Amino acid sequence: MAARKPLMTPEQQKNFKEAVEKKLINPLPYDQYCKLTPEEAEKMLKEVNMGTQAPEKSAPAERPGANEPATKFQIKAIDDAVKAGIIEDPGEEVRKNLTKGSASEIISEIHAKRPPEQATESQKKEIDRLVKEGRIYPMKNETYHTLSKDKASELISIGRYNEGQKIVVEGFDPNYVARRNQPKTPEQEAELKRLVAEKRLNPVPREKWANLTQEEAGKLIFVGQRREEENSFAPPRDHEQTKEQEKTPEKPEKKTPAKNKTSRSRGDDMPM
Predict the structure, then answer these.
(1) How confident is the model at residue 72 (pLDDT cuts 50, 70, 90)?
(2) The overall pTM is greater than 0.85
(3) Count of other CB atoms within 10 angstroms of residue 25
(4) Please, what is the Cα angle at 103 between 77 and 66, to 5 degrees?
(5) For residues 83 and 76, what is the distance between their CA atoms, to the nearest angstrom?
(6) Helical residues (DSSP H) of the chain, grouped into ranges
(7) What is the pLDDT of residues 30-54, one digit of tens each?
(8) How many other CB atoms sit within 10 Å of the CB of residue 56?
(9) From the CB of residue 121, how many other CB atoms can be counted at a distance below 10 Å?
(10) Are 71 and 100 in contact (CB under 8 A)?
């Protein structure tokens, strides 16, 4: 039969042992000691001022000078925010009675509502370097161009930490940038053919297929595999629908002009 274990937390067990050694609590038989619930143990420990619960925090003290009149810099910051439409005008009466404390609260609200500052060019250059060296993951163009200064700082911190620890992110390919404009690989070609055969992708036009790059092939494979995961199929091509219409024209005497073979279908997965 397995030995019985105490129900108390490790921290409570440690404090209970110290309390017994200091003769603040009478020692208990081991069986009774094991039966003590964390709540019961906490009550006993609190009675001898050795509880594990953190003391209640007192209300923060009022900042010195909080009741003094607001400074001209605080008032200007509030006025600028009103002009920019970040907050509503508090009114002349409120302005007259503004204290440093109440002005600080309004300014905190302004900072919370203000759009985040955009990442600087130097931050973006550092992010580019860290991505190329595999210290952080690459991101979508939209994400990159809308990065905030704070988010950029966070990414740079992660990247520099990984750099210091000689860590590269999972799936990093140091030759990707050099290879992305190279012709598609045989593996990519085979996967594209499979996805087209299973109707996850529309066929790539012949002239485009011949010059398909590894980057373009990779994007198409990503689209096809996502459709596969979602059990969805490629949209029908417009020119296929047009051909069906051409077979049964409404007015036989009026010929439908021949459709340019190189025109792009909205159902194509890649621009022609």
Answers:
(1) confident
(2) no
(3) 19
(4) 135
(5) 10
(6) 10-21, 30-35, 38-47, 72-83, 92-96, 100-113, 121-132, 141-145, 149-164, 176-179, 186-197, 206-210, 214-230, 238-247
(7) 778 888 888 888 888 887 665 444 4
(8) 5
(9) 8
(10) yes
Report yes or no: 138 and 109 within 8 Å, Cβ to Cβ. Answer: no
Helices (H), ranges, 114-237:
121-132, 141-145, 149-164, 176-179, 186-197, 206-210, 214-230
pLDDT in tens, 102-134: 888 888 888 777 777 899 999 999 999 998 888
Sign of the torsion formed by the C-alpha atoms of 131, 137, 142 and 148: negative
Euclidean distance between CA atoms 36 and 181, whole angstroms? 69
For 205-233, b/e burial (b = at least 16 CB within 10 A) is beeeeeebebebbbebbebbeebeeeeee
State the Cα–Cα distance between residues 66 and 103, nearest whole angstrom.
Answer: 9
Distance CA 85, CA 88 (A): 7
Which residue reads 């003590």 in tokens? Answer: 36
Q: Residue length, the chain?
A: 272
